[in-house]
């Protein structure tokens, strides 16, 4: 199955990939967006249905990570390079605290 990345998806996907562990909870995404929690939840559900993100269960909160195929689509469209800038920006703002998804550390999307 080939995934289709739409213009409205790119920012959310980049937000997830720019996190320390390339996985964020709904709560963490709310902190990075002016969208409401319901809007973000609905968007994540649509991204999951289309194969762009995977929901990772088993911790205090469900976390979302970008699928490997979606990462490849972002690279092909030259939309992956900006993630380093976002990562640096988020790291400067977050300090060194653990994220909700700190246990998701073997993704290897670099």
What features would you describe in this structure?
The chain is mainly alpha-helical. It has one domain (7-94): Orthogonal Bundle (Arc Repressor Mutant, subunit A). 46% of the residues lie in helices and 10% in strands. The protein contains five helices and three strands. It has helices spanning 7-17, 26-31, 37-49, 68-76, 83-94, and strands spanning 23-25, 53-56, 63-66. It has a three-stranded antiparallel sheet with strand order 1-3-2. A hairpin with a 6-residue loop joins strand 2 and strand 3 (63-66). The chain is globular, with a radius of gyration of 13 Å. Mean pLDDT is 81; it is low at 103-110.
Briefly characterize the structure:
With 110 residues, this protein is mostly helical.
Write down the Rg: 13 Å
Overall shape: globular
Overall mean confidence score, pLDDT: 81
The biggest beta sheet, please?
3 strands, antiparallel
The helix-and-strand class reads mainly alpha
CATH architecture identity: Orthogonal Bundle
């Amino acid at each position: 199955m080939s995934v289709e990345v739409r213009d409205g998806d790119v920012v959310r996907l980049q937000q997830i990939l720019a996190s320390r562990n390339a996985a964020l909870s709904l709560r963490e995404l709310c902190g990075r967006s002016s969208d409401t929690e319901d809007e973000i939840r609905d968007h994540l559900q649509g991204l999951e249905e289309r194969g762009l993100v995977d929901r990772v269960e088993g911790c205090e909160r469900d976390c979302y990570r970008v699928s490997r195929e979606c990462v490849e689509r972002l690279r092909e469209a030259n939309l992956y390079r900006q993630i380093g800038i976002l990562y640096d920006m988020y790291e400067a703002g977050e300090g060194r605290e653990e994220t909700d998804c700190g246990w998701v550390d073997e993704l290897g999307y670099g």
